[in-house]
Amino acid sequence: MSSRIPEPLKALVEQLSRLPGLGPKSAMRVAMTLLKWPEAETRRLGRSIHDLRDNLHLCSRCGGLSSADPCAVCSDGTRGRDTLCLVTEWDSMLTLDEGGFYRGQYMILGGLLAPLERKDADSLDLDRLNSRLAEGEIEELILALGATVEAENTVSYIRQMVRMRFPQVRVTRLAQGIPLGAEVKYMDKETLRQSLQYRQDLA
Ligand SMILES: [Zn+2]
């Protein structure tokens, strides 16, 4: 970066450029935009960033983001306590819960097994899952981890782990297969393979 850039601006651009999707050039653009904003707005943004760590917590039960610990979902006494839905990221939990059709507990895994990216079992929040299952309340663990290769690997790993340590817990996964309104002839091979593998009995 040019030495003619004033130090405070240089420091800001360096920090901004560490954000996802921002290189040095776009970080400079963001910094220049902030300078053009009315002072009160720039300060308000700064305050929000400053307060972020004080006002936002990770829920100790599910690992989700919340302004209180435990979060509103975990402390909701009207929800079922015998099903636990495991999701990869916090926003998946939000999406699932917005539907309103699931009224059990959640837990956030924090990632998926990806051996090629050196993400092994230690990088996932399996301790939290293990201690939750050890409490003995959960009867069914629903794996809602998606349908990627990484998700498949993670599903088999967790299924294995739960079978060994908590054989009484039923492990299920979200149904895989043909989306609503789609035709078989337009499906990709993997979707068809899974649809066949997880086929259902007709009631
Ligand atoms: Zn929670």
Structure description:
It is a single chain. This protein has 203 residues and is α/β, with parallel strands linked by helices. The protein has two domains: 7-55, RecR Domain 1 (Helicase, Ruva Protein, domain 3, Orthogonal Bundle); 79-197, Dna Topoisomerase Vi A Subunit, Chain: A, domain 2 (3-Layer(aba) Sandwich), CATH 3.40.1360.10. Helix content is 42%, strand content 11%. The chain has seven helices and six strands, in the order H-H-H-E-E-E-H-E-H-E-H-E-H. The chain has helices at residues 7-16, 24-36, 39-55, 90-99, 126-134, 149-165, 189-197; strands at 57-58, 65-66, 83-87, 105-108, 140-144, 170-173. Strands 4-3-5-6 form a four-stranded parallel sheet. Strand 3 (83-87), helix 4 (90-99) and strand 4 (105-108) form a beta-alpha-beta unit. Helix 1 crosses helix 2. The radius of gyration is 22 Å and the shape is globular. 16% of the residues are buried. Zinc ion binds next to loops. Residues 59, 61-62, 64, 70-71, 73-74 line the site of zinc ion.
